[in-house]
């Protein structure tokens, strides 16, 4: 059942693909990070920035309910600021399907020019930290389009694994299939307690 | 007590209780005691008791009764200083200061040494700026109470304000001698802490101020040297005064030392200090190199500062040097991501600079060039340079701010398509940088498309709705688009809840909003509302003047004398503020319009400009207006009621004094039907003539009023003043022609002395050559400015007015249109004006094809401006933007919250 609700809010990944601006340097080489990264809350006052960001970063559109829920999500939804400009965002929710209590990353994305600066890492670490401090979670998982290799590699670095592939997960984009990436948390918690 | 109506001991005790109750604001009790005295038939007409009863009633908000009792009391006892004093206090609470002064003077006749009355009188005198009277009163007070500090200070201040610095300084010095010994003893005895005696410190600094203003620089400096370290707490003021005084005394070496070690070392960003320093070092315009060297020294001394790097950009005129300085400065700012960079550099762009130094414009070119180089290199190599070693060395935000700068740069240069290109590129890069939407809005505004501008600004506002700056900006743009009620709604996000936003903004004296709203109403031909806003602004100024009253006692007590003198001087020229100027200008223009075309009883002033709206649109508009009106009147009724309730509750002591100043209620429908519009206009004009003499508009407006009043000498005066400011101003030239025409028509009626004055002056006004008619004069002015569109427009209008034959006017207008490409001063505003005049038939029936040709040529020149679009072009434009917008957002599905769809 939870799967169907996920299907309405498809696709969670860090979109590493560049768009039409091939003449930009940031498409060719790794930029140097100079500015600082901060995370900030999502509030009714700045929620439109989140919309704007998701509109640009993801090929899918999220509905109003998504944004309504995000406002209630507290630490599970964060904006990432680079040099005081909003350039990324992460939105999660708690998922109780399949007899597990898991953290589901709905979206995690960053504007193209600001990729590979550690912004995604900062956001993901925040989510992992949250999961660690609230020990009730069994795992963290997300969906990613099967051709999005950079995103898959990114998550693998943090111990995520492909546990399943869903056919025709996405409705309006190609390829429509999605991997489910998951990181189990029990071991990590146990390690910490030792 | 009054000798004429003495009270026996018991009643006298009661009367004293009334006074005490008044002082302690126990008004109800006071009335009780008054009743006890007055209920005794023997004392029913006791003047002083009646007066006090009235005064107490006044404090309870029962003004009419108060006046009755106080007057009755006074009539019963004309020789009582109490009755006169009370009457004065009552008048004062009613803000009738002149009357109050008279009452106090009468009171002093019967008790000339009454300290309380003298003090009250002095307050009114300073408020009314009766400085001589003030000095006399302070003198009396001084003689009566020579031991009090306030007596000395007030006495000295009176002389200071009268510019008798010598006497003021003497009094202060005498006082310092007596007081500093006393005070020091006091201070030492009590808490042994001299360092915190701020009042003494302020007094000493005030003395320095008086010395300095009087030109006693050496004395001032000695004073500072003597007390600066030990007794004055405000060290910054000591150093600043010292630097100034040393400069005034031409002791430049010492000045340099103070500026360098005490001022710039404290704050290396204060521009003024560098001006001082240049002066002290004797650096002038011509020795560019030495000046630059001075700044380079400070750059090395304070490598993180901004001023020493920014200021040389102003004066360095060697292109090579300028380029390297600018290069360094720009890169640093771009790396920091300073959004205000363009604003910081804008003075280098200003036309004023170009006028003074014709070579200045090369700076714009260099900056533009540098920015383009940065942009290319950043895009290609991620660096400001092309050198491979630096590749990728710059932050991702650098390119963003380069594009942001270029957008503003081209907006300033009026190349709006380029500006839009850069801002859109920046938006593609980072669509979450809100400043970009603000700039985009600004570009559209300058390009003549206010609706599009509102859309962008609304988007900016929606992205951070907790930002009041963006909220206000959006409201302002809505007002520019004449959407007043929406603007109020926008503001309501930040105004007090439960109160109508417009009322709250008025209460907060939010004048930028009110003057923009007045302009919007003026454009909408809604004269009543426009006047209402102007009068509200006028009342704010009255209120600010009024608020001054509390400071007369407060500042003296707290010894903040320097700030107090500053306040008094500010209040003297309060109405020179641009807010007042704008409001007054609108009000005068509206009154002139209402004089020219008075409204009938049933006219609704919201005449819609129907010329360029289709009938169906018009219908919609009218029904919309009707609805809005209904809503507004309902809301007004509501607030009226709630207002009533709330005032009734707290009515007791505050309401009476506060509500006075609010004045009578402003009803738009009444305001737009004034009995004497020109008289009302003159009320707004007077302060401008006094305080805004340097602005030509003041005198142009004055002429318009006096022309309609037929006051020939005042017309002459306005023209003479205007001519001194700009003798080729198109409006002025029109007025000169009208004046000449007026003279021709009324020559016979002029009295000999007037005629003599006119004959004497006319030559200097219109030049020495003989002119035989107003038309000929117009022709001459037009010839003089045959390359200026605005001048040609004005003179065409005149031809239409002066010449009965419309044919000539039409021909002339057509000629202007034909010459369009050859003319200068061709901008959106003037072209739109021209278009409006042609369409209104001011030049007779101009051929439709000519109008269309004019429109399409303007449209070519200003493709974004809505003024010159046909309705189908407008639609097309909207569609195009829709496409562009969605391209920017890459959005595939959602548009519901975009700005594109317009209702």
From TrEMBL, chain A:
Please give the catalytic activity noted in the UniProt record: N-terminal L-methionyl-L-valyl-[protein] + acetyl-CoA = N-terminal N(alpha)-acetyl-L-methionyl-L-valyl-[protein] + CoA + H(+); N-terminal L-methionyl-L-alanyl-[protein] + acetyl-CoA = N-terminal N(alpha)-acetyl-L-methionyl-L-alanyl-[protein] + CoA + H(+); N-terminal L-methionyl-L-tyrosyl-[protein] + acetyl-CoA = N-terminal N(alpha)-acetyl-L-methionyl-L-tyrosyl-[protein] + CoA + H(+); N-terminal L-methionyl-L-lysyl-[protein] + acetyl-CoA = N-terminal N(alpha)-acetyl-L-methionyl-L-lysyl-[protein] + CoA + H(+)
Q: Where are the transmembrane segments?
A: none
Q: Which residues form the N-acetyltransferase domain?
A: 37-186
Q: Which residues form a coiled coil?
A: none
Q: What is its EC number?
A: 2.3.1.258
Q: Name the Gene Ontology molecular function terms of this record.
A: protein N-terminal-methionine acetyltransferase activity
Kindly list the places in or outside the cell where this protein is found, as annotated in its UniProt entry. Answer: Cytoplasm
One cellular-component annotation, GO: NatA complex
The protein's UniProt keywords, in alphabetical order, are: Acyltransferase, Cytoplasm, Transferase
| rRNA-binding in keyword set | no
- List the GO biological process terms: mitotic sister chromatid cohesion
Protein name per the record: N-terminal methionine N(alpha)-acetyltransferase NatE
Species annotation? Dinothrombium tinctorium
UniProtKB/TrEMBL annotation, chain B:
Instruction: Give any Pfam family that matches.
Output: NatA_aux_su
Report the GO terms under cellular component. Answer: NatA complex
Q: Which PANTHER family match?
A: N(ALPHA)-ACETYLTRANSFERASE 15_16, ISOFORM A (PTHR22767:SF2), N-TERMINAL ACETYLTRANSFERASE-RELATED (PTHR22767)
UniProt GO molecular function:
transferase activity
What residue spans carry the region label Disordered?
A: 632-661
The protein's organism comes out as: Dinothrombium tinctorium
- Is Transferase found in the keyword set? yes
Name used for this protein in its record: N-alpha-acetyltransferase 15: NatA auxiliary subunit-like protein
């Amino acid at each position: 059942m939870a799967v169907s609700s996920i299907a309405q809010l498809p696709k969670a990944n860090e979109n590493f693909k560049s768009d039409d601006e091939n003449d930009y340097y940031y498409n060719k080489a790794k930029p140097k990070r100079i500015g600082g990264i901060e995370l900030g809350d999502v509030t009714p006052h700045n929620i439109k920035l989140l919309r704007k960001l998701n509109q640009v970063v993801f090929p899918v559109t999220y509905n109003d309910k998504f944004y309504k829920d995000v406002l209630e999500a507290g630490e599970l939804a964060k904006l990432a600021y680079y040099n005081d400009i909003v350039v990324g965002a992460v939105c999660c929710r708690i998922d109780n399907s399949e007899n597990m209590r898991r953290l589901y990353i709905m979206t995690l994305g960053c504007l193209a020019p600001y990729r590979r600066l550690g912004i995604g890492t900062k956001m993901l670490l925040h989510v992992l930290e949250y999961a660690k401090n609230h020990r009730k979670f069994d795992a963290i998982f997300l969906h990613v389009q099967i051709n999005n290799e950079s995103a898959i590699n990114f998550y693998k670095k943090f111990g995520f694994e492909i546990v399943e592939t869903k056919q025709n997960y996405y409705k309006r984009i190609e390829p429509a299939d999605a991997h489910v990436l998951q990181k189990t948390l029990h071991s990590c918690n146990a390690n910490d307690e030792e | 007590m009054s000798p004429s109506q003495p009270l026996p001991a018991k009643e006298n005790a009661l009367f004293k209780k009334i006074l005490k109750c008044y002082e302690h604001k126990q008004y109800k009790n006071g009335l009780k005691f008054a009743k006890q005295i007055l209920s005794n038939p023997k004392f029913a007409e006791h003047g002083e008791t009646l007066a006090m009863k009235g005064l107490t009633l006044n404090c309870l908000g029962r003004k009419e009764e108060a006046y009755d009792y106080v007057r009755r009391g006074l009539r019963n006892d004309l020789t009582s200083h109490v009755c006169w004093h009370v009457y004065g206090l009552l008048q004062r609470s009613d803000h009738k200061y002149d009357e109050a002064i008279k009452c106090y003077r009468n009171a002093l006749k019967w008790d000339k040494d009454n300290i309380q009355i003298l003090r009250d009188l002095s307050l009114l005198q300073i408020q009314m700026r009766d400085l001589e009277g003030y000095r006399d009163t302070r003198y009396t007070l001084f003689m009566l109470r020579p031991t009090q500090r306030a007596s000395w200070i007030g006495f000295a201040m009176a002389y200071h304000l009268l510019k008798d610095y010598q006497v003021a300084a003497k009094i202060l010095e005498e006082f310092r001698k007596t007081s500093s010994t006393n005070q020091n003893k006091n201070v030492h005895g009590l808490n042994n802490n001299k360092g915190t005696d701020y009042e003494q410190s302020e007094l000493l600094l005030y003395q320095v101020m008086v010395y300095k203003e009087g030109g006693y620089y050496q004395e001032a400096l000695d004073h500072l040297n003597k007390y600066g370290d030990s007794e004055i707490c405000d060290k910054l003021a000591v150093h600043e005064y010292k630097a100034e005084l040393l400069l005034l005394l031409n002791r430049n070496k010492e000045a340099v030392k103070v500026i360098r070690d005490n001022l710039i070392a404290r704050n290396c960003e204060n521009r003024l200090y560098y001006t001082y320093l240049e002066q002290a070092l004797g650096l002038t315009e011509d020795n560019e190199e030495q000046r630059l060297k001075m700044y380079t020294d400070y750059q090395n001394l304070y490598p993180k500062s901004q001023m020493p790097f920014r200021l040389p950009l102003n004066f360095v005129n060697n292109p090579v040097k300028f380029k390297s300085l600018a290069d360094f400065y720009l890169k640093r700012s771009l790396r920091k991501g300073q959004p205000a960079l363009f604003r910081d550099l804008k003075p280098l762009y200003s036309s004023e600079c170009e006028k003074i130094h014709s070579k200045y414009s090369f700076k714009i070119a260099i900056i533009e060039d540098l920015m383009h180089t940065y942009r290319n290199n950043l895009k290609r190599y991620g660096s400001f340079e092309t050198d491979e070693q630096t590749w990728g060395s710059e932050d991702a935000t650098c390119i963003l701010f380069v594009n942001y700068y270029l957008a503003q740069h081209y907006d300033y240069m009026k190349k709006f398509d380029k500006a839009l290109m850069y801002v859109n590129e920046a938006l593609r890069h980072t669509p979450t940088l809100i400043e970009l939407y603000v700039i985009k809005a600004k570009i559209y505004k300058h390009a003549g498309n206010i609706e599009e501008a509102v859309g962008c600004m609304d988007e900016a506002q929606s992205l951070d709705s907790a930002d009041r700056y963006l909220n206000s900006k959006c409201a302002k743009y809505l007002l520019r688009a004449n959407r007043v009620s929406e603007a109020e709604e926008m503001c309501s996000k930040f105004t007090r809840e439960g109160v109508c936003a417009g009322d709250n903004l008025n209460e907060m004296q939010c004048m930028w909003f009110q003057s923009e709203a007045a302009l919007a109403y003026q454009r909408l031909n809604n004269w009543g509302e426009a006047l209402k806003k102007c009068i509200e602004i006028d009342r704010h100024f009255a209120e600010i003047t009024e608020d001054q009253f509390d400071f007369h006692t407060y500042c003296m007590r707290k010894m903040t004398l320097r700030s107090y003198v500053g306040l008094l001087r500010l209040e003297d020229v309060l109405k020179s503020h641009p807010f007042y100027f704008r409001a007054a200008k609108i009000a005068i223009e509206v009154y002139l319009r209402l004089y020219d075309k008075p409204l009938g009883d049933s006219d609704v002033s919201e005449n819609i400009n129907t010329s360029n709206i289709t009938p169906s649109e018009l219908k919609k508009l009218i029904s919309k207006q009707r609805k809005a009106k209904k809503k507004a009147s309902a809301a007004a009724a509501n607030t009226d009621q709630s207002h009533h309730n709330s005032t009734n509750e707290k009515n007791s002591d505050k309401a009476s004094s506060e509500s006075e100043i609010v004045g009578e209620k402003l009803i738009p429908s009444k305001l737009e039907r004034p009995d004497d519009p020109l008289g009302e206009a003159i009320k707004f004009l007077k302060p401008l003539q006094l305080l805004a003499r340097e602005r030509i508009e003041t005198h142009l407006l004055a002429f318009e009023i006096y022309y309609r009043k037929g006051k020939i000498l005042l017309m002459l005066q306005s023209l003479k003043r205007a001519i001194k400011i700009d003798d080729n101003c198109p409006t002025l030239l029109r007025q000169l022609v009208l004046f000449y025409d007026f003279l021709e028509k009324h020559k016979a009626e002029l009295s000999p002395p007037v005629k003599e004055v006119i004959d004497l002056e006319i030559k200097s006004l219109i030049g020495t050559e003989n002119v035989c008619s107003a038309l000929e004069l117009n022709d001459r002015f037009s010839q003089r400015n045959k390359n200026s569109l605005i001048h040609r427009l004005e003179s065409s209008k005149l031809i239409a007015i002066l010449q009965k034959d419309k044919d000539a006017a039409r021909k002339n207008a057509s000629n202007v249109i034909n010459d369009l490409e050859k003319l200068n001063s061709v901008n959106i505003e003037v072209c739109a004006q021209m278009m409006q005049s042609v369409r209104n038939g001011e030049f007779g029936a101009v051929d439709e094809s000519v109008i269309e040709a004019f429109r399409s040529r303007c449209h070519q020149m200003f493709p974004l401006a809505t003024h010159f679009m046909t309705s189908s072009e407008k639609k097309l434009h909207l569609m195009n933007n829709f496409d562009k917008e969605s391209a920017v957002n890459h959005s595939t599905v959602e548009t519901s919250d975009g700005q594109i769809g317009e209702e």
